[in-house]
Specification:
The chain is about 20% helix and about 35% strand. It has two helices and seven strands, in the order E-E-H-E-E-E-E-H-E. The chain starts with a strand and ends in a 10-residue tail after the last strand.
Length: about 100
């Protein structure tokens, strides 16, 4: 099973540029390798878990308003990393798998 989380920075109710330097700093504190295609990273944690981190524009001149995490499993370290990236970029975390009803928003 996979699970995706999306992070987005907003200003005045609209997508806006997130702080690339702070998000990059969070990434550089963790073991990671670039995956195929620009803006994709495989992030590895000391507990053996890993996460795919999609952050196009993070290391280029392109706009960077948000990113995504493609999870195959959960661990305390991976969830802490996602939280730290959200704080660094002042981003909101979205779960796009919901059904948009009372029992599964």
């Amino acid at each position: 099973m996979s699970f995706d989380l999306f992070l987005e920075h907003f200003a005045a109710g609209k997508s806006a540029m997130a702080d690339k330097a702070r998000v990059l700093s969070s990434l550089h504190q963790i073991s990671h390798t670039p995956a195929e295609g620009g803006g994709f990273y495989s992030v590895h944690f000391s507990d053996g878990s890993k996460v795919e981190f999609a952050a196009k524009g993070l290391e280029s001149e392109a706009d960077f308003t948000g990113c995504a995490f493609h999870l195959r499993n959960f661990s305390k370290e991976s969830l802490e990393f996602i939280y730290n990236v959200a704080i660094a970029g002042d981003m909101v975390i979205f779960n796009a798998q919901g059904r948009d009803n009372e029992s599964n928003p």
